């Protein structure tokens, strides 16, 4: 900040007192050298007139208070602060922060914000020989203009128009064309970080078969479920319309019905993190199949072991689509009780999981480890369904453990 | 020095040392292990007040709860109605961003000073800055200065598995838990959350003052529908509530039922089935709840997304035997309640004193107002 100001002013602008002192000294010096009998004859009047001339000549420069935007020394187009240049305190001592806040006010240039009633931007004020410096508490945004006001004087800063690649929806998981009636969630993947806030108005579900929009199909949360980069949104279906016997399901029925076709639409109006709308709307079309009410059983998965001495991928065919995010995180390979380094991969339908080891496979026994909290598309776990019929079984506790399925890497038998 | 002035001096010294001792005792109990300096707040969501003006802030991005000693402990009487029109516009104007870039996440009233605290985010996307502002009962808004306050932090027990997925530069840990509500009760911070991947249903209890060794308790919450089907049920919002002299929690599930369970059930590793006391219908997203006393009776006020505020007499909650059969008509089963139709568009509510509530109201996607109203 400090270096920014220095480079900006470059020592050219000085306080009024220094300016005056420098001029007065040079004037006396000149007068002494140029003193002639003639000028002496003019006497006191000449002295006063010439002094007045100098002061008047200096006056416009001395009094010029102006608003100046202060930029970072390292370059950059967004100002760090605003300076009220050449403003001087008439009274003794420094002006207090309240006075400085009245003298220099900065506002966002937005239609709804009115400087005559709305509060100015908060920040800190500093007074020095250059004038008053305002630094906002939060950095100025590069997406909106700002207005600085000093009495009847104003100055604006407008950001440059920026060319940016519009953000788009890359994909929506699950990618299968047929989804279960009791589908629990979607993942919407964007090509760049998005903005949060009131997001649900940008998401609509249409029932193509009945030619109507599905009302209130999603679980709407105050704080939506994003990944840290805000490039992936988790959109839960309203569990009140999935769970047996709860009022929303009884009142209005399920959001998705077997045999019908739907479109999940992401509106183009949704703004990304830079404030620009999406390049185009995204529509995912799917049909609805029967509910999935079976627990996950990794023991029934088909494991295709690779050859020893190679880094061929291990291939696991799961017998139904899994939750893509959880399948990537909750399936792994262990060897000698330790997790094996490697890269997992999942097909689009999330039915085949592959694993390429960092080092070649060795002959021997390995294990496929699957965490018990892995879910299929309807939220069923290993050994436990999303909804448990407690008249048949009570298995309340999900043990946060894992299932290990051994497999062996052997040379191909001739 | 005369005898009299000597006595007065002695009296003053005694008084001063007593005050100092008192301060030290008060300060030591809750803030002894706190540290000063900049608080690394990455997001500001749910808020709750603890003892002595200590504000708890849920920080989902850090998977943590922060305790901030606000030092805001001077009692101020709430004397005249508060009404701040277009609060979101005023906040945007102060924070230097367009109105649409200010999101108010939660509100809590300091029970000592009656000052109102709001958690916000300023800006868009992952770079949005968390901000906490204080609004006095007179309507003066000022941001909380994070650099000078004492604070301590508890990381969520059993926080997201720190496992990165993806390749090369795209490697990241996408799992994040969103903290849906927090409350302070009997020396513990209770935390409800939702995960962005698995449909988890954990409720945590973290002892306060925060300690390094004790990670706290994690329980799983279930919903039993009509004695037959049972599901894990994440809690969206909850409020501490006494039944007799037993502390309970009254919680709203994401699938809408309102349930109760005793706080004593929050034992390590427990699986709790909440007792359903009310079935809320479709579109009825519970947003916030407060408990208050009026005319020697206790009531629950619940803001929700579709109807006006619901006022529920506590007797009904205490006596509710739990709903066992399916709801067949359109009525809300289980509890008698009154809908305060005039309180529309309430996003957040809290008690500002024993007779008034303070509300964040947004009607029809219009501006957000902050106002006090007498309790119904």
Structural class of chain A: alpha+beta
The number of strands of chain A is 25
Largest sheet of chain A: 5 strands, mixed
Main sheet attributes: strand count, strand direction, barrel closure of chain B: 9 strands, mixed
Q: What's the SSE pattern of chain B?
A: HEEEEHEEEEEEEEEEEEEEEEEHEEEE
- Rg of chain B from C-alpha positions? 22 Å
Helix content of chain A: 10-25%
Distance between the termini of chain B: 62 Å
Question: What can you tell me about this protein's structure?
Answer:
- The complex is a heterodimer of chains A (414) and B (376).
- By secondary structure, chain A is α+β, with helices and mostly antiparallel strands.
- Helix content of chain A is 18%, strand content 29%.
- Chain A has three domains: 2-157, no CATH class; 169-289, Immunoglobulin-like (Sandwich), CATH 2.60.40.1220; 298-409, Immunoglobulin-like.
- In chain B, a hairpin with a 2-residue loop joins strand 19 and strand 20 (297-304).
- Chain B has a domain at 186-341.
- Chain B has 376 residues and is mainly beta.
- The longest helix of chain B has 29 residues, at 3-31.
- Chain B has helices spanning 3-31, 87-95, 314-319; strands at 47-49, 54-59, 64-69, 83-84, 102-109, 116-122, 129-135, 141-143, 150-155, 177-185, 188-195, 202-207, 217-225, 229-232, 235-243, 246-253, 258-262, 271-278, 286-294, 297-304, 309-313, 338-340, 346-351, 356-362, 368-374.
- The chains are: A alpha+beta (414), B mainly beta (376).
- Chains A and B meet through strand 3, strand 13, strand 14, helix 5 and helix 6 of A and helix 2, strand 5, strand 10, strand 13 and strand 14 of B.
